[in-house]
Amino acid sequence: MLWSTGFISAKYGLPYAPPLKFLLVRFSLVAALMAAVALATRARFPTGMRTIAHVAIAAWLVHGLYLGGVFVSMAGGMPAGTSAMLVGLQPLLTVLLARAWLGESINARQCVGLALGLVGVYLVVREKIELRADAIALLPIVLALIGISVGTLYQKRFAANVDLRSGAVVQFSACALLYAPIVAWLEPSPIAWTGEFAFALGWSVLVLSVGAISVLYWLLRHGAAADVARLFYLVPPVTALMAYALFGERLGALALAGMVLIAISVLLARRTRDQRRSVLPSATTSSGGSRSAGA
Q: Which domain range does residue 227 map to?
């Protein structure tokens, strides 16, 4: 539910700020907020250039590439439903990558569940898909899909033993440093500091960057990447329900049927107990018994 509000807050805030400048302000505020929390609670900061580099790379993928792609595509006119549909392909891509990279096994039942989830996602947002979108319009959201899929696996494999609080400082500072020259070059337009933008920014900082991403990394620490990824199938239908409640966007019969398929797919895609025990040591040791890096 928290993750789904990202599309809603973007819809509120993007009319008043360029997409990357919006994210730059968001990253900077979260970095400052988490720095205060880390210092006040005496969190242990990561040491060693290799560890810091791993944390930064995970941030550039999960935050920089994913959020940047989604915001740029929506600012360019791509409907939120279209973005949700394309990013909704993440479980399929993550499961394949997790199998090849982390050694996580999948069975026939899970494959059926993932396929049903894909069909369900399509049915939920099919009325909003613009099939005439050209490659340039689709490129940002494709990059977002790659970023979140690879980033969650990278986070689990290389950055799972970093304190959540200090890891957030490193991650969001790295994203702000990456975005600052890009924004200065590409987005000179000022931000219109309206009440709507302030609300969207505050929600993005506190609820999404601190709350939702923290939950994501906590889940990655305590479960397989494929298990976590399948939950992203729930984002499009939950977003659709929120859009109906807030903006009056109606849901057709096919969309409701798609939500049922998604619910079934989440159940089918769950790993069995034997599969949980069969995950390779490299995957389990990177997540078990440690704090995850950063919100």
A: 5-273
